[in-house]
Structure formats: structure tokens, C-alpha cells
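Bench notes, afternoon.
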Amino acid sequence: MNKVLYITANPSDDEHSYSLSVGKAFVEAYREANPNDEIVHIDLFQADIPFLDGEVFGARSKMHAGNAFEQLSLLEQAKIGRLDELVEQFLDADKYIFVNPVWNFSYPPVLKAYIDAVFVAGKTFRYTSDGPVGLLTKKKAFQIQASGSVLSEGVYADFEMAHRHLEAVLKFLGVPSFEAVYVEGMAAQADKAQDIKADAIAKAREAALSF
């Protein structure tokens, strides 16, 4: 049995979001093909995702200097404790499904905060004499990304920073398999929006069978 972490970064719902509706189709097809796998959903807009701020860095400095967790302030304990929970949950999963829209060429800030939360030396990667090495070498990842314009190819491809950043992150962390389905061009071709969505759902369902 595999554990799948379904990570969504969209404040809308399945009915009104292109990325979430395609993500839902992917998960349904995956569940049908893998009924024994466990799928855990983390909605980043509803979950507590601490930003890396002065309190977090201050708390980590204190602990690095030898202070016990109990010696941190209550706020520091809450943030460090939650960050630890997030990275442990991430490590516990065998597969990741990321679902996000593109906002101004990148993804919502809460997804970057989540990436920061699981980017932990000694857990998801480690430093060696030959440089950093990713530790997630037995994981798989998939992304479903929606954008009003076509960004995966064509004249705006160089502006796309969401998929490319996530791809770089996962490669750094050692994840050997990363694929994606794009739902894109709905704003540029409003009359074809539903056809674009239907095509992406079909691709997602097919991709789910081999994920």
C-alpha cells in the first residue's frame, strides 16, 4: 500500500476551479486503480502553514545553540512544532500530487511556504563534501497546473515560474519521477474553456492509471 499526499493550493472549490476539478478527476481515477492506497488531502489555504520568519529562524538558532524545545517561547514552539509535523507528513508519503493555479507566472504564496516547510537539511536533503544530495529518491510526484494563458509552450513559456520552480525543487530533493498535466489557455480562448478542461480531465485520468 502506498500513501499519497494530495496537496492543493487553490482558495476556490472543485466546481469553480479548473485545477481542482482536474485534480479531483485524477484522484478519482487513481483511487479506482489503486483501491488499497491511502490518499491524504492537505488544503494549503485551510491548513496552518507557518512562514519562515524571524521567530522561526530565532527558534532554530536557539535550538542549534543547545536550548531545548521547551525553552522556546510558546509562539516559537507552535511554529517549530507545526513545521516538524509538515515535514514528517511529507516524508511519510510515497507519492505527491500538487494542484495549483498560476498567479502572475508563479503559484500562490502558500505553496512556496509549504515548500519552505519541507525543505529541511538532514530530512529531505543533506549536505555532503560533494554538495547537497536529495533524500527523496524513492518518491514520485505529479502536478496539475491551471493558467489562463498557455505557459507550458509558446511565446510565454519563458515567463512560467511555477512548474519550473517545483520541478527544480523536486529534482534537488532527489525525486526521480515528476510529470504534469496542464489546464491552460481558458482566458485567452474563453469560447474553448470547457473543451480545454475536458481534454485536461481526460489526460489526467489516463495519467493517474500509471502514477
